[in-house]
Amino acid sequence: MEKQLIISISREYGSGGHNIARHLAERFELPIYDHNLLDEIVADKHMNKEKLAKYDEAPRLKVVSRNVRGFSNSPEDAVAEMQFKFLKDKAAAGESFVVVGRCSESILKEFEGLVPIFVIADRDFKINRVMTERHFTEKEAIAAIARHDKKRKAYHNHFAEGKWGDSRHYDMCINSSKLGLEGTIDLLEDYIRRKMGM
Amino acid sequence: MLLAQVLAVLIFIVMFVMIITEKIERQYVTLGCALLTLILVFGVGMHSLTAVKDTLNVHSIFTVDFWYQAGEASEESSGINWATIIFIAGMMVMVEGMARVGFFRWLCMRLAKMVNYKTIPLFITFMVMSAILAMFIDSITVILFLAAVTVELASLLKFNPVPMILAEIFCANLGGSATMCGDPPNIIIGTSLGYSFADFVTNTGVMAGISLIAVVIFFYFSFRKELTEGSKEKVDTSTLPTPESAITDKVGFVISTIIFLVAVVLLVTHAMTGLTVAFIGLFIALATLITSWKYIPEIMKKVDYKTILFFIGLFVVVGGLEQTGILEIVAEFISKVSGGNLYMMIGIIIWVSAIASAFIDNIPFAATMIPVIKTLAVTQGVSLETLAWALSMGTDIGGSATPIGASANVVGTSVAAKAGHPVGWGEYCKKAVPATIIVLVICTVYIFLRYL
Known about the structure:
Chain A is of the alpha/beta class and 198 residues long. Chain A has helices spanning 17-28, 37-43, 49-53, 75-92, 104-107, 123-134, 138-159, 176-196; strands at 6-11, 32-33, 67-68, 71-72, 97-100, 114-120, 172-175. In chain A, α6 crosses α7 (138-159). Chain A binds chain B through residues 41-42, 45-48, 51-52, 54-55, 62-69, 71-73, 75, 77-79, 81-82, and chain B through 20-22, 140, 154-155, 158, 304, 306-307, 402-404, 407, 409-411, 413-415, 417-425.
């Protein structure tokens, strides 16, 4: 069997991290898990995806949550646990894949084939991308970036061990605005091939 | 004394905030604050060894009265309520013994089969069963099993389990309010004020009974549509798991059932036999362990020590408030606000208890309020019983209103979420708040009519 490869892409909103993850998945011919994770999870169960999606990559709200004997009333906790379990099961089964966010660099760190990467970008680059991709005005883009990054950070820091974007927890933190998306993807591909001896 | 009072209040507030933030596990919070109370409040503030002794209350265990009370219930004690702790620990052992042999799963499956797996009858049966079981068993266990079976049946019979789980949770809390041993606040109220099982059943039990009827009707009309929506498809019920398949150990099952029934009989008759709840707790724990000695490690491992430690610490911190006279000040405040008006006073106790319990743990709240109502009874000449029932219903029912109000709510919604049906505050409160208000109104009116 081939060596296991798990590419974990964490990203700032607007940095193009998701795009990079998709291209890496194509180049390495791997399945990608992002918001489609919930589709996979609900596929064999009688569940309500829209309801679950509301709590995807969301931090638990502290004041309105309580734990009793290891049980938590917070839906965010439940959805996160489900996804973590799904990813861990896949990894434990020896599968290779690309995963976007979801604290994957932390929950999968025991797996040797994990390549954790954090994608950042310059502010203007992010604003421009969000404006073109989402058809937002500049003001809307700035607000969206602030909102999403705040949420991702809170989500990550609640469930994962290290802090969001702390370089010590990733193989590489890369600024996608320097080489552009294409250049960044090339560089990452090269790095991964070298690391894995492919 | 002022220093001791300030320290007692500070420790109490710190404890409450830390319980809510959950940064540190709650048993360490209460035990740590208990230690601070002993050193700072009783030692530094009061220089009183008697206060320490009274609060630790260990001597009470070694009196005959603690285990056997002939005639009228004796004087209530302050500080650590060991009777509550021993009883809860004993019940935990028994319940773990019953869970091990598959009793609860069997009961749920049996009832489901009895109603032919039809959604609406199932809904009503499970609500009533939840209430009845919760009269004798802690609500967390009741919901843990009931919700798990509900999720399983929902996926087999293709209906949405959330309405049913929400109704079960509500009824478990309601059932718990009916008896002395159903809910922790009631155990604390009963043991510290010297009320019997029969006292509770004939007072809070009646209110809970009337409320249950109202609640079943309310939930039926609120959830009728959702429940019947999915269940149109025909499901072959012969493929469903049989009740018997739930039983893991036949002999153990029979023994557990007998121990449970004995426990119920002992509890119901304890005012006549004179056996205290502490005695009953110890007895059923020993009976469970002796009859399943092979599984002692397995059972003991599952007992929730954290809750027991939480209680011990809690009683000491509340003891600090009590010994320093803070709770008398609170009592005075309540009587001032109500202007000596009895209706007002009862109303405040029910509704304030309920609103507080909806957001914070109702156990510390009830433990704190007991000395308060004791003082009110003495200074205002109000019947202590009436105040006790108001406090009991307020704390027990109020906890039903939000997803974090009571332990059963957290466990129930968690089980639902794990099965892919997350329940947020909005969805929960939309049905639970009106139901809570209905029950509280029933209780308030009942107390006004019967006791005042």
